[in-house]
Specification:
This protein is an alpha/beta fold. It has one domain (about 5-130): Rossmann fold (3-Layer(aba) Sandwich), CATH 3.40.50. About 35% of the residues lie in helices and about 15% in strands. It is built from five helices and five strands. A five-stranded parallel β-sheet has the order 2-1-3-4-5, with helices on both faces. α1 links the parallel β1 (about 15-20) and β2 (about 40-45). α2 (about 45-50) runs parallel beside α3. The longest helix is centred in the last third of the chain and has 12 residues, at about 115-125. The protein is globular.
Length: about 140
Amino acid sequence: MENNNISDYDILGRKILIVEPNDLNFYSFERLFIHTGFKLFRVQSCKEAVKMSAKPFDLVFINILLPESMMAAKKIKSLKPYLPVLAFSNFFSEEDKQKCMEIGFDGYLSEPMDNVTLLFEIVRFMRNRFKKTTKMKIQPVY
């Protein structure tokens, strides 16, 4: 059985690129990640995301409500097929979910997200990029 215990993975310093133009939405991500050890990087447009993806990131979150989000995901995946790219939005219809998967997103998350769910999803998508480590405590933010 595969171990999904977050505290078994070395997440300290892992880099996450978040494509989000809205300050309040980005602040929500910051609050969720505050005690995790992840380093967050933000860009406000999909064009910036494609440029930034040339740098070493461990995961990319893209707000699919942005006009060029599908193009950005496709481009990033073509440049770095191993890099997990996740879509996020306030609401996902079944059509949206299907379109995301067809385009090449590795998954999708609906807001609002609690920090435990978010961390489990990150570990699930990045498991092969983490190395096992000694126990590390991650404190929830409520």
